[in-house]
Design goal:
Alpha-D-Glucose-1,6-Bisphosphate, Chain A, domain 3, TATA-Binding Protein, 7-stranded mixed beta sheet, 7-stranded antiparallel beta sheet, binds 1,6-di-O-phosphono-alpha-D-glucopyranose
Amino acid sequence: MPILTIETKPYADQKPGTSGLRKRVGVFMQPNYLENFVQSIFDSLEGFKGKTLVIGGDGRYYNDVAIQTAIRIAAANGFGQVLVGQGGLLSTPGASHVIRHHKAFGGIILSASHNPGGPDGDFGIKYNVGNGGPAPEKITDAIFARTKVIDRYVTVNAPDIDLGTIGTQHCGEMRVEVIDPVADYADLMKTLFDFDKIRAMFAGGFRMQFDAMHAVTGPYAHRILEGLLGAPKGTVINGTPSPDFGGGHPDPNLVYAKDLYDLMMGPDAPDFGAASDGDGDRNLIIGRGRFVTPSDSLAILAANAPHAPGYAAGITGIARSMPTSAAADRVAEKLGIEMHETPTGWKFFGNLLDAGRVTICGEESAGTGSNHVREKDGLWAVLLWLNVLAARQQSVDAIVLDHWATYGRNYYTRHDYDEVDSAAANALVEALRGKLPSMAGTSLSGRDVAYADDFTYHDPVDGSSSAKQGIRIGFKDGSRIVFRLSGTGTVGATLRVYVERYEPPHGQHDLETQLALAPLIALADEIAGIRTRTGRDAPSVIT
Ligand code: G16
């Protein structure tokens, strides 16, 4: 089949963000927009001729079209084989596992994660390398450089692949294998967790609600929770992926998963509530009457991981993103294992995991995962929690209170200001940077400043460094305020303000979080002039 070379013109706005390129669907539908980006990915890679590429997405609007386009361009560029999930579906952690398990050269994941979908929603694309993890910055920088000068892409004139039918097809010379999106992933989970113990817990009347938010984890959760683990039918709700996520916002936080939260705080709450996002890498954990912050969840899972067979030998180290609370640090300290603080973005964990320096990683943005794949993994976190609950035979609430009594509590909140004018947001950050040198050693609202800097990460494995990763103001009493601009928004800028305060093991652990942090929240506004500069009276989302 002849290879077609199509002339094209570059777009100036194809810089990958925290996790790939995310834009409104309408932007992606511009002529050659997607084609340019896919070709730029391949132009930035070497040595893939005849190799395997994994392609899958979260099922959002435009997924089907984008997959067919990517398959044709992959065929024209000389890949030997594409593995694609049935229906075009692969959760992000599922794709990571398929890449690793089948020793693929890499993978293309089509998702805008927790952002809304549909014709007026968002779309996204990212490239993952052979270890199953998001491409490191040196590759995303090369892709961006290529998008700025690209003048042609190659494709083949072949019919669409039938994504509904599992089995082998061809696109030009290239083999296309449509695979069951869940099978490999479910097999991996069986090796990590004590399925018998969890099954016995469900058989004993344990009740759970899992909200798949009309997104990609639906088929995974149905098969694993209700199928393999015997949870009653109806445990999984909103379990059929839809192109616009049922008109909802597939972000498992207290705003967009409010129904689940209300259920879990109500009189008829089940024992355990959980949710995952658009592409299945985030998680929300709520026990009866007890919300668990992602930062606490990371710490608790790290402390309890050996209850699961896959981690019975213990963990080698923990990594967390810089804005994530220091709760996990206290666990690492007690276990005497390595602790790493990285910039926001799962890609920064890859080297540490590959080098065996850490076993468990997590982020305040509802992401937790381990060395089993190279992405955060929503359902994995849920299964580890279930394993811990089955092993300890205690409630989520009891486990959280016990954790605080042992390690102390890091009160923690994140305030987001969405769709802020970009110029105003950048000016706010610039002004803060200007103030940093004069802050260290002073006292702000009676708190002594221990350090005030713009976080730079030095990767201990490959020696690279990443600067300007967020402004941190740390106080001598262990509290901290962090400011940074999101790298995943698609409209204007999103300002994130992260506030934390440490209360030791025998301190007061039962305060309402916003109240406990009120003085620091006020101080953050005072330092950065958030209200004045953004014109906002209140955050759009508090988590
Ligand atoms: C992505 C990244 C995460 C990051 C999150 C928020 O998650 O993979 O590492 O923590 O974005 O990033 P930001 O604060 O820059 O918006 P996801 O679930 O969107 O792929």
